[in-house]
Structures are given as C-alpha cells and as structure tokens.
C-alpha cells in the first residue's frame, strides 16, 4: 500500500518546494494515514508512514539547511494530526530531534546523520519532558552524569520516551554531579538506543499506544564527543525552547481540525438538533483559523529570544490545547451514539486531545510559565 504514496526519485530533497511538500503530506494524511489511524491508536507504530512523510520533506523543512520553514513544518504536522494525533506527535518528536542535531553544531551529528534523519531514513525522538519540568522547578532531574576521561557516564531512569526502539535514538539531558553530589551544570546528548540501553515496556496508556513509548534505564552509559549536543545544556535549551513549543501547535490544531470535521460530518442528519449545542463547527473553525494565523506569524522567527515572543508562543500553544479539548468534546456531543462507539474517531480524538494537554509542556506548565513571565513584567 505504501508504494502509492512514496514520491518518485526525482522529487527528492532539493525538490522540497512548499507546494510539493504540502501536496504530498496532504495525500499521505488523507490516504494511507487516515486508513490506519484506528490501528495506530491500538498500538501499531507507523514507521512506514513516517518514512513516507520524511521522503515528502515533512520532517526536514524546519531545518536551517532547508530554509527553516517552520510554518510549512507546522502545517504538515497539522495535516497529519487531523487524521491521526499519534502520528502528529511522532512528527513533532522527530522534528525536535532534528533541531537538536542541527543546532548542536557538532559535525558528528549535523552531517550525514542529520541528513538521514531529516529524510526519514532513520528515526529518533526526544526525552526532554523531565529536564524541561526540572528547569521550571516542577520536578528533579532524573538522569545524572559524572565526568570521566573523554566524556561522561550517565545513570538514571526516564519513565516514558516515545518514537524510540532498538537502533533508534533521542535527545536527552543529564545533571552533572560534583564529588559532593551537588549539580555543576547539565549536558545534552544524543542517546543511541543500542545494547547498553534498557528499554522497558510502559503500562497501557488510554491513547497514543502506537507511539512506541518506552521506559529508559541507563547504567553507566558513556557519552563522548560524538554524541554531545550541548555542554552546558541550559543556554542551548533557552535558545531552542520557543521553537520546541511552537512546533507542538501543529499537533494541537490538527486534532482540533479533525474533531471539527467529525462534527460537520453529521450535519446533514443531525444539524436540526445539533444547532442547540455549544461549540458549533463554524464557531470553532473561526477560532482555529485565528490560531493558525497567529502560529504562521510566529513561525517566521522561531529563534526570537525576546520575552514577548516566548509569551506569544506559550499563549498559542495553550490556546491550541484548549481548542483541541473543546473541539474533541464537541465532536462527541455532535455525533451522539455514533461518536460513542469505541471505534469512532471522536473517541480517539478525546484521548488524543487529552494527551496534547498533558504532554510537556502540559497546560498547567504553560500557565505556570506565562504567570511567571507576566509577574516579571508587572511585579506586584
Ligand atoms: C503516551 C506518552 C508519551 C510520552 N512521550 C514522551 C516523550 O517522548 N518524551 C518525554 O520526555 N516525555 C514523554 N512523555 C511524558 C509527558 O511529556 C509528560 O511529562 C507526562 O505526561 C507527565 O506530565 P505532567 O506535567 O502532567 O506531570 P504530572 O502528571 O504532574 O507528574 C509529575 C511526574 O510524576 C511522575 N509520574 C506521575 N504519574 C506516574 C506514573 N503513573 N508512573 C510513573 N511516574 C509517574 C512522572 O515522572 C511525572 O513527570 C510521555 C507521556 C505519555 C503519557
């Protein structure tokens, strides 16, 4: 089935024009991805779809080497998430991993390794939930590093990391300990999931089961120069954080858009009574269009380091989450018993929208950051 969506050899990297990327992503999303969305929800990890999206340019166009087209990358994620939120999340995980590799400036990571990643020939995600929360003072760092000759040894456990498997990889951060046990700084590295890494099955989640999510346990895992993304990690994270968060908006808006589609679908049969419901498709579509507009403006300057820019990014990410939650709930109410079937798209989207609201930065984390930034701006 996948042969029909793979683009031909002459439409490769240098042919990733905006129109070609958008067209091919739309074709994959509406065709093979939509067809397997229910299977992905139950646990199928869609690496064939990810490879097709990579070949189509959807996983590489946000990189500086391909024009830093963040708007196009977010549109692509929105298009896929409209059909399947889990695949949208895999795209985000993959996109930010590519961002880490490129922005590392480490020639071991930003050369052919990144090319293969950007084209969807190899796969990897991100293990940054815990450090992102730790840097905001929400929880302690879970990976610890000790300095050794030529690099660091890493120990610790992360409870859930997606888009990894044996032979894949993810960006990770560890706190570097001094002899007295205090933290001197943090290091960021590419964690290759080779024989040194223990991948532990996670408990069954209520959704996102096809995202290949594992617990990761490291015991004296050595990291040398070839895997180093940033040492120290904090300035690097401060630089890429708005881009990290902004990219997630594609996932939120796509889930919302798919939910609006489900509400519209039943208008011919149920419109006469559904018009008494709140969050009608037209109202939600107007909010969606507004969020898309704002996201596209922000996507022009993903490395803007100003406080105002970060606030705008946090705001649109939070609004996207809230919109996805409301649209998913509305789609269930609009579809009624049809949407209450276990196999119905609104059921799946309710769970996907909950994930959008709890994945780091979760809605509560976004609000904490916004409150903190506003307080700095307007101290009491
Ligand atoms: C399906 C799925 C995929 C994910 N993929 C990734 C990924 O690719 N990369 C990544 O870095 N993070 C991943 N996460 C983690 C995610 O981003 C959030 O950190 C997580 O959902 C908790 O966020 P929270 O802010 O709501 O924390 P809270 O729910 O407030 O919890 C705070 C902390 O308590 C711990 N905790 C709470 N409940 C449990 C539990 N039942 N078992 C073990 N520990 C628990 C966790 O360490 C958690 O971070 C994934 C989570 C899920 C459910």
UniProtKB/TrEMBL annotation:
<dbReference type="Pfam" id="PF02771">
    <property type="entry name" value="Acyl-CoA_dh_N"/>
</dbReference>
<dbReference type="GO" id="GO:0003995">
    <property type="term" value="F:acyl-CoA dehydrogenase activity"/>
</dbReference>
<feature type="domain" description="Acyl-CoA dehydrogenase/oxidase N-terminal">
    <location>
        <begin position="21"/>
        <end position="109"/>
    </location>
</feature>
<dbReference type="InterPro" id="IPR013786">
    <property type="entry name" value="AcylCoA_DH/ox_N"/>
</dbReference>
<dbReference type="GO" id="GO:0050660">
    <property type="term" value="F:flavin adenine dinucleotide binding"/>
</dbReference>
<dbReference type="InterPro" id="IPR009100">
    <property type="entry name" value="AcylCoA_DH/oxidase_NM_dom_sf"/>
</dbReference>
<dbReference type="InterPro" id="IPR037069">
    <property type="entry name" value="AcylCoA_DH/ox_N_sf"/>
</dbReference>
<protein>
    <submittedName>
        <fullName>Acyl-CoA dehydrogenase</fullName>
    </submittedName>
</protein>
<dbReference type="InterPro" id="IPR046373">
    <property type="entry name" value="Acyl-CoA_Oxase/DH_mid-dom_sf"/>
</dbReference>
